[in-house]
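INFO  loader      accepted 1 record
INFO  loader      residues=83
INFO  predictor   begin
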Amino acid sequence: MTYVDTLLDYGWRLGPSCHLMADSLDELHDMAARLGLKRRWFQDDPRLPHYDLTTRRRAAAVHLGAREVGRRFVAARVRLCLR
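INFO  predictor   done
INFO  writer      dumping tokens
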């Protein structure tokens, strides 16, 4: 399963963004490829491997089946990785 969290404005020139995450790296990279993301954009953070998405790509990910989640879901995933 792939997930997208809430759009936030981090001060990027491209506007608000969010994270694309998944239950496995294979699922994550597969969805990223379907969205036309470049592999070099992958952020291999051991706490939260992800891609950043703009508003338009977030909408496309949801259309392709990504589940919308909140910040608490992300925080719980990070806590699991810290164990």
